[in-house]
Amino acid sequence: MKTSAKGVAMAAAFAATTVVASLAFGQAARDYISVVGSSTVYPFATVVAERFGRDSRFRTPKIESTGTGGGLKLFCAGIGVQFPDIANASRPIKASEVAECARNGISEIVEVKIGFDGIVLANSVRAPRLALTRRAIFLALARQVPDPKGSGTLVANPYRNWRDVDPALPDLPIEVLGPPPTSGTRDAFDELAMQGGCKGIPAIAALGDEAKIKAVCQTLREDGRYIEVGENDNLIVQKLKANPAAVGVFGYSFLDENSDAVQGSTVDGESPTFEAISAGAYPVSRPLFLYVKKAHALAIPGIREYLAEFTSGRAMGPEGYLADKGLIPLPAAELAVAQRVARGLTPRAPVN
Amino acid sequence: MNTELQPPDRNLASAQVRQIVEAGLARRYRRERRFRAYGLLSVVSGVLFLGFLLATIALNGYSAFRQTKLQLDLDLDPVVLGLGDGADAGVLASADYQAVVKASLGRLFPQVVGRKERRELNALVSASAGYILRDMVVAHPELVGRRITAWLPADDTVDMLFKGRVGRGPDAGGQLNQAQLAWVDELIADGRIALRFNTAFFTNGDSREPEMAGIWGGTKGSFFMLLVTLVLSFPLGVSAAIYLEEFAPRNRWVDFIEVNINNLAAVPSIVFGLLGLAVFINFFGLPRSAPLVGGLVLSLMTLPVIIIASRAALRAVPPSVREAALGIGSSPMQMVFHHVLPLAMPGMLTGAIIGMARALGESAPLLMVGMVAFIVDVPSTPLDPATVLPVQIYLWADSPERAFAERTSAAILVLLGFLLVMNMAAVWLRSRFERHW
Q1: Per residue in A212-233, pLDDT tens?
Q2: In chain A, how many domains are there?
Q3: Residues A223 and A297 in one domain
C-alpha cells in the first residue's frame, strides 16, 4: 500500500499542475463563436449554428440558453475571449444595458433583426377556444384594475372568472400559466398584451404620469391566478394538457408543434397563425434580435460568415429552414436591411 | 427489595389474571401487526412510485433507440454533385449531396413536379441525409459515379408518425399534410421505410434535428468532468480525512473546520456554481463551458462528501490495529499508510463513487459556468466546450420538436444506467473488500 499512498500524492501534484497550467491557457485565443441569450431565439440560433458548423470550415458556435436579460448581462461584461460574441434577444436592448456595455468598453454593437415570434395564449383542446381581447387580458391579469363598481379608482383585481371580465367569454376560472420576469417572452407579453390592453382605460390614463401608468399596466397580479412556470414552454404545454381550465402563455413554435393538445386563443379577433403573425395582424408578436460586438467580429474567426448564414435567404427567407422551425420571417424590405447590416457590421445608432 | 412493588392481589383469580393478560396481549399483537402493515405499505408505495416513474420513462424512451429510415437509390453522379474532373478531398467535402438525395426522391415520385410539392416531398427525408452521404463519399471516394442503395434517416415528422407517437393530420399532432401522408404510405407499401438501430443516438453530439441528436457529446463531457472531479477531490479528500482523523490535535480550530466541512456537504449545489463563476471564470479567466471548470466546481461539492465518508472509514478501523502497529515500532505515518489506510480504502472508495454518482447527476451549478449550451462538436479535451448528460436531458426536454420527447426519456435511461453501474460498483466494493470486526 506504500505505492498507492505515493500514487495519491502524485495524483494531487498532477491535479495542482493541471490547474496551474490551465490558468495559463485561459487567455488563449478562442476558435469558435460564443453565443448567449434568449431561450426563444435558442431553437433558431442552434439550427443556424449546426448548419454553419457542418457547411463551413469553422467550428460549430456554442450557444447558451440563458434568457435575454442574463445573456445581455454576460454580453456587456467586457471585450475579450472570455466574454460572449453574440447575444440573442427576444426584445430590443434596453438603454440601461447599452450603458452597461459602454461602461465596459463595448461601444459598437451591431443589431440584426432576425424575424418575429408570436406570443400565444392557449388552452387545452378539450376546453372551448377563447376569443380574447387585449383589454380582457389586462383586466384578467393586472394587479390593479379600475373599480368595476364604477368609482373611477384603482382597486386590487377582484376578477375570478373569465366571464366577469368579458360576458362573451366562457364560464371558466382565471388560471394563467406563464413565464417569469427574467424571460424575454414575459417582457414582450407585459408590453404588448398588458400595456396594449390597458391603453384607453380612462381611470388609468387619468394617472397622468407615464411611469405610473406603465407600472399599473405591466404589473401582474400575485394572488395565484397568474402562475410563473419557469422558462420551459414544454412544461406549460404539459400542464395545459392536464388541466383544461388553465390558459398558458408561450411562444408560437410550441403551439405549432402541439396542435393536437392545445389551441391558440384569438386576440382582438386574430388567430395566432403563421400568416397573421407574419403580416403583423396578430397583435401580440414581437421582433427577435441578434446583438454582435463589432470588436469581436474582427477578431474571432467566423462571426461574419455566421451572420451571413443567419441572414441568408435559405435561413431567414420566407421559405427558409428557420421558417420551418417556426420563426416568422421578416418582410422582404426588412430582410434586405438585416442582410445589409450583417454584411457591413453597421453598429446601431447610439440613441435608444 | 423494591418497596414500591405491591404483592399480587390474592383475591384476583388466576383465570382473571390470565384473561387480562390475554386481552392485553391481543392488543399488543394487533399493534405490532398494524405497525408491520404500515411499514410494508410505505415500502410498497415507494416501490410503486419508483416502478411507475421507471415504467413511464422506459415506455416513452425505448422507441428512441430505433430510428425510422428510408431506403433510397442514390445516383452519385458527378454532375448532380457539382464535381469537376479533379475530385480531391476538399472538393468532395463541399459537393451538394442533398441534391443527390432530392434527385433520388424525385425518381421515386416522378408525378411530383410543382416547386411547393417538391419541397414537401424533400421534407420527408432528414435535412442531415446529405451530411451522412458526404461522410460516406469522403471515406470512399470510389463511390462517385456509381449508384448505391442506402438507408438514410427520415425526417422526425415521419419518424413520429411511423412509430405511432402522433396520428395523421394536425388534430392528432401530425405535422404532415395529406399529400405527404400519401407518399409515406406509398413508401411503406414499397418496403422502403423501416426502423433501424439508432446508431446516431450513441455516436453523435447534440443536434437540432432529432434524428441526428446523440448523447456522445454529453457522455464525453460528463466523463472529462468526472475525471477532473475525481483527480482533484479524491486525493484532497482522503488527505484531509487522514490528517483530521489521525494527526490533527483536538482543539477549537479543528472543531471549527469539522463543523464547516459538515455544513459544506449540505450547501445547495447552485451556490458552488456561483462560486465557480466568480472564482474560476471571472478571476482566474478559465474558459467558459469547459469540463475543467465544471469539474472544479463539482470537486468543491464532492470534497465534503469524500472527507466525511473517508473519516467514517478510518474510524471503523479498530484502535487495536493502530496500537499493534505502534507496539512493534512503526512510526505514526507507517502505522497509517501500512495498516490503517489499506483497511479503510474500500470504505473511502465507496464514498468517492457515491460522491461521483452525485456529481454525474448534477446540472444546476453547471448553468452558472456555461455548460448549459448547444454544443455539436464532441469535446476531445477537458478544455473544449462541452455539456454533460443531465444538461443534455434538460435541453432536449425544452425543445419544441415532438421527437425530442422520446430522446429525452432515452437519455434519462442511459444516465440511470450509468448511475446504477456506479452504485453497484460501490456495493460490490463494500461487500468484497470491507472487513467486519
Answers
A1: 888 888 889 988 899 988 767 7
A2: 2
A3: no
